[in-house]
Amino acid sequence: MARNEQKDPLSRFLNRFKGQPGDGDRGPGQRKMHFSIWYFLLAVLVIFWFHSIVTEQETNRVTYSQFKQLIKSGKVASVVIGPDMVTATLKKTDDKQPAKTVSAIRVEDPGLVRDLEAQGIKFSGSMGDRWLTTLVSWVVPLAIFFFLWSFLMRRIGGGPQGVLSVGKAKVKIYAEKEIGVTFDDVAGIDEAKAELEEVVQFLKDPGKFEKLGGKIPKGVLLLGAPGTGKTLLARAVAGEAGVPFFSMSGSEFVEMFVGVGAARVRDLFGQAKEHAPCIIFVDELDALGKARGLNPIGGHDEREQTLNQLLVEMDGFDPRAGVIIMAATNRPEILDPALLRPGRFDRHVAIDRPDIRGREAILNVHAQQVKLGPDVDLKKIAAMTPGFVGADLANLINEAALIAARRNREQVTMADFQEAADRIIGGLEKRNRAMNPKEKEIVAYHESGHALVAMSLSNTDPVSKISIIPRGIAALGYTQQLPTEDRYLMTREELLARLKVLLGGRVAEEIIFSDISTGAQNDLQRATDIARRMIMEYGMSEKLGPLTYVRETRSAHLDLGFVPREREYSEKTAQQIDEEMVSMIEEIHREVRKILTEQREMLEKLARILLEKETIDGEELKKFQDEVRAGISDDEPGRAAPQIGARNRIST
Questions:
Q1: What is the mean pLDDT of residues 100-125?
Q2: pLDDT computed for residue 308 by the predictor
Q3: Cα separation of 45 and 110, whole Å?
Q4: What is the pTM of this model?
Q5: Are 14 and 5 in contact (CB under 8 A)?
Q6: Is there a single domain that holds both residue 186 and residue 37?
């Protein structure tokens, strides 16, 4: 919905003729005009109807013979002869009463004039009532001309698709009461809300800051991964402050026409000044504010002109005008430095992925509209969804509600949430996918190898579920590990343990079948990525030393895996990196083979259970895990207790 500036009906009516915005999501000058045409035609009809009522006289209709008899009897004072009618005014019989008139349809009568002259009656001629002719000859052409003019203006410049409207910002304007979002609707990012509270205070009471000489930041840049709530937080600021909210995406500024982007920036800031105090929100700022000269071969002059205009508008913007500029991006490393300097986007608010308490708070907000069963524990759901952002958690609750409705339940149960989490993490369950017994056995041993290695190591995440039910597009099974608390750092030993778990499935196939399958492709890809990062980014190679061989900073908010960049080291160093990666993976492979060879009996037992039940979770998995760790304690009494992992993992 858009903002309707005028509240009273008269103002809204007049604005339709002026081209100002009314209801709907169109900007100024984009209101449809056919309403004005109908009002115009209605007004014309009312005027003619009123004219006919005012000028109407009391007239009696008589036959022509009666009309002639009245003339001969001397009761007629005057006669008006028209082309179709003859009207006679009768003589007054009472001075207090008005003269009466009678009319008759005219008949071709040459003797009418002689009779009138013989009686001494005054008579005159009339062209008749020509108002209909006037309407057809003047008003109707004007109405048609006005209709065509408004139609052409709407097509050329007045409408959203008009040629002259390309320079207008395609901004969505939300009125104060239409935002409907406050800080109560935002959970899990308390630090970010605290940062923006003084922006709200400035919009509500700017004098509090101005009397001390303080200036509110011109721009606030929200940084965070997709789905963390950047747009929601910006709308909550506008909702708390009770001011209009201008929302526009960075990609909507640039068009194929030269100069359109800069014109839209000027139009956006012009509208904002008229509605101050207000908030301008530009989503996906990186589409507009990418650093100039970042790609000198394929530069985009139009985009750079748009960025230059944005810089000029922000630099010349009066902070006392009460307009706050907010923007959101998940790629701050590619933004132009001129945008980030003080005086433009002064304040940077980082919105991180929520921790377990934040996830629980977000679940509480989204679960208010859902009927939860008595067995639902939102704290447990928050614990089994590490790495989820606000959008993921909202989708989780929606998926659980859909699953419960599909099963004709009155309430959403904990089992529905578990199935929804599995569906989001691993993909849609495909029980109808037919696998022959040999393939099913290979998958069972593969997933058992992952799980057994994870159970045998002391610094891995605990295994929470194993399944050989196909999910998603290519996953024939998965092993799920969930941490018990949030972690933000990983040691070298923990990364090596993760490599061992990834290779556990392939090694199990080697031991049991003396052969390998294509099922470990994803595991090998992820293991190679971790090993390369350890050597090239984290400096965890003893041979190459504490050096990093990647110059560009990785995105802190987008996990794009290992992205190859321009090499800045010698061929000899590149060869050493490759040799170190191969050496690391081979050493991990030998250690995993040793673990599974020593526990082959446990591996076969777990695989048989998995073949029988297809899914192992809950108490049975915990019991089996205790048996594995008890066997480890008997063999190695001094082995350390299991440590807590960092994040969940699904291997195929």
A1: 80
A2: 83
A3: 39
A4: 0.65
A5: no
A6: no
| DSSP string for residues in 614-638 | SEEEHHHHHHHHHHHHHHHHHH-TT
According to the model, what pLDDT value does residue 266 have? 83
**Percent of the chain's residues with pLDDT above 90:** 12
**How many C-beta neighbours within 10 Å does residue 554 have?**
16
Residue 196 in 3-state DSSP?
A: helix
**pLDDT (mean) for 612-636:** 72
Q: At 398, which helix (H) or strand (E)?
A: helix 390-406
- CB 188, CB 359: distance < 8 Å: yes
Residue 182 class from Cβ within 10 Å (0-12 exposed, 13-18 middle, 19+ buried)? Answer: middle
CA atoms within 13 A on the CB side of 386: 18
> pLDDT tens digit string along 60-75?
778 888 888 888 888 8
Q: CATH number of the domain that 466 lies in?
A: 1.20.58.760
User: 199-230 in b/e burial notation, b at 16+ Cβ within 10 A?
Assistant: bbebbeebeeeeeeeeebbbbbbbbbbebbbb
Residues 549 and 583 in one domain: yes
Ranking 444-453, 521-530, 623-632 by mean pLDDT, the lowest is 623-632
Note whether 240 and 280 are same-domain residues.
yes
The Cα 385–Cα 398 span in angstroms is: 15
What is the helix (H) or strand (E) element at residue 249, kind and residue range?
strand 245-249
Nearest partner of 238 among 272, 286, 191, 274, judged by Cα: 272
Buried b (16+ CB within 10 A) or exposed e, 134-172: eeeeebeeeeeeebeebeebbeebbbeebeebbbbbbbb
- Residue 128 phi, psi dihedral angles, 5° rounding: 90, 175
The region of weakest confidence among 76-90, 127-141, 427-441 is: 127-141
Task: Tell me how crowded residue 418 is: count the other CB atoms within 10 A of its CB.
Answer: 18
Peptide bond between residue 277 and the one before it cis (omega within 30 degrees of 0): yes
Q: Are residues 136 and 20 in the same domain?
A: yes
Whether residue 424 is predicted with pLDDT greater than 80 in this model: the reply is yes
Give the model's confidence band at 622: pLDDT under 50 very low, under 70 low, under 90 confident, else very high. Answer: confident
Q: Is position 447 annotated as part of the catalytic site?
A: yes
- Give, rounded to a whole angstrom, the gap between the first and last alpha carbons of the chain: 45
pLDDT digits (tens, 9 = 90+) for 394-413: 999 999 999 999 989 889 99
Q: Which of 195, 302, 447, 494 is catalytic?
A: 447
Which residues make beta-bridge pairs with 412? Answer: 372
CB neighbour list of residue 618: distance below 8 Å, 6 or more residues apart: none
Instruction: Classify residue 407: in a domain, yes or no.
Output: yes
Phi-psi region of 259 (alpha: psi -120 to 50; beta: other; left: phi over 0): left
Contact 585, 499 (CB under 8 A): yes
Number of C-beta neighbours around residue 45 at 10 A: 11
For residue 505, pLDDT beyond 50: yes
As for how many domains the chain has, the answer is: 5
Most confident of 39-43, 118-122, 331-335, 579-583: 579-583
Q: Indicate whether 3 belongs to any domain.
A: no
Under 8 Å between Cβ of 287 and 251: yes
